[in-house]
Amino acid sequence: MPSRDRLVACLVLTFTAAIAAAAELPPDKRPFGVDDFTALHSAHAVAVSPDGKEILYDVRTNGDKGPTKHEWRVIDVDGANSRKLELPEKFKPSGYTREGALFGISNANKLGQFAIVPRSAGQPTLSLGLPNNIEAAVIAPDGKHYALLVDARSKDALEDVHTVVENEEPSLYVINATGGEGAWWCADLKSITDIAWSRDATRIAVITQVPKLGNHELRSTVSVCGPSGSRRVADIANGTAGIAWSANGQDIVFASTGAPTLTPEHLWSVPAAGGAAVDRTPQLQGSATTVSADPQGTVWVELHKGVITEVTAFRDGQFGKSFRWPGGVLESLPVVTAFTDSPEVLGFSVQDPQHTTNVAVENAGELKRITHDGDDTLSAIALGDVHVVHWTSKEGIKLEGIATFPPAYTPGKKYPFLVFPHGGPEANDTLRFDSLSRLIAGMGYVVLQPQYRGSTGYGSEFLAAIYQHFGDRAYRDVDSATDFAIAQGWADPNRLAIFGWSAGGFMTSWTVTQTTRYKAAIEGAGITDWVSFIPTSDTWQTDYDARLQEKDAAALQRFSAVMYAQRVTTPLLILHGEADVRVPTFQGREFYVLLKERGKTVRMVTYPGSPHFPALAEQQRDVCKEIVDWLKKYNL
């Protein structure tokens, strides 16, 4: 499951009556409130122009209703001359053409279609329609072709009458620069997850993975595809993320793992001519989570090092220069100029606990922020301190977390406390502007986000420790965070709460079956029954436990909260999207029904049409209201 980053970026709501702890705020400051959420913007780098002079970026805000709003803008790399682009309403640009137009995906009749939108007035938009949804478009380094990921099968004529349950099968369709002369390349390659053009634009490296339906174990294949067909390069007995060609074209690089947890966390390569995949980072203490390459031949690697995310160059088999945002994180891999004859310009999306996401560029080996979205709103907001903290659990495990303090925090005073385990579980919290932590801290809480065993950023052994041990090892780590907060004098031991979403929701539901120390608990889209969850989730869940349920159901029931409903005494709020296919809604409903019939204090709220995280602003705001009201009512 993905981390709850999308949710965290959206959930901001503060009630004036809940901010008693902020009584000593400076007179020119106010707590972060709903109006600030509506006004707050973030800026995300999308692409660099062919001449390296400007960066395309996406300004996002939620507003009061509906899905996230997008405003597409460009800015000179020196930070001057930001201007809004007038683009078709349903067009999402992916990058630049050689001529400086924009290409991307346009939604038409619920299907993604390829489009080229000129920047010059009076020029027509070119579009290409295929029977099924186009998922992605990647331009070749010479600018002469696009590779599209799209399902090659015919559209279901009865899709308005029924839904056929089957796997998606993204295949490779290649068109020329004007959208014509399309052809299916390598029709034998299906279920494609990642592609990368070679530097000479003659071949495409392809990752395929066996689909979830019909398979119990995840396997991947690396292939090289050209106009005349495909050649299998290597079989990977695990998952992968990202793909890139080395500078000399002799190797293909990707992130993968040898651990049973499936999550890519090391840098691997395989000869393009074929051969065995080799782990290039066997002693890595962090996690290499994905890769990409620029047309100049540099492979860029996203590295998680504890709660810090940085980007490091990999060239000629060696790590080179690294980029890190001071006091914060890089949100993703850099955006780069797309063509071999373009200058090498790197654009980044950066964030820290005091600023929302913005665009930065490399300048003399350092990063310089060139947008300042959200700063006008946050300048009038009182934000408490955020610290990276460390402790050792009772069983000797060295752990790290992010502590967010309320505004006007007074050292030595005990505050209501909330432990906030992240989703994933093979993910991590990062040193960023965490809106939900800010919301709860604004109520006068100390919030601690523990990086429990199973988190990325701490090496393979730490990550793999969660396998078949989510309910004991990870649970003890999360609970030790509460012990730590009490020992530090931050947390009032009589006012403890726990909240998490997705895998963090599992941790919440499981915790209330194991201890009575928490006075309030909130579970968002959490797993409560592993026996039914593993086969019904839309993505691979055998990273938690690959044992077959019919052969060893007791092993899966061991950490299923539904098996221990009678133990629960903590008031529990359950929040769930009704269209959630990552953690199906019945997971929350089953636990709710069992608790309700046993006379427990429980409330369940569902959101019509909502996927794993609420997609509409009005639903996100209601989630906030439910969280705040529950804490106010039960963690007195």
What can you see in these coordinates?
The chain is an alpha+beta fold. Among the domains are: 108 residues, no CATH class; 253 residues, Rossmann fold, CATH 3.40.50.1820. The chain has 11 helices and 37 strands. Strand 11 and strand 12 form a beta hairpin. It is globular, with a radius of gyration of 24 Å.
Report the count of strand segments.
Answer: 37
Our count of helices gives: 11
Question: Order of strands in the sheet with the most strands?
Answer: 30-31-33-32-34-35-36-37
CATH architecture of the domain at 382-634: 3-Layer(aba) Sandwich
Helix fraction, binned, reads 10-25%
Mean of pLDDT? 92
Largest sheet: 8 strands, mixed
**CATH domain class name of the domain at 382-634:** Alpha Beta
Radius of gyration from CA coordinates: 24 Å
Instruction: Identify the overall geometry.
Output: globular
**Full CATH superfamily name of the domain at 382-634:** Alpha/Beta hydrolase fold, catalytic domain
Terminal CA distance reads 33 Å
Quote the beta fraction.
Answer: 25-35%
CATH fold-level label of the domain at 382-634 = Rossmann fold
Low-confidence stretches: 1-23
Structural class: alpha+beta
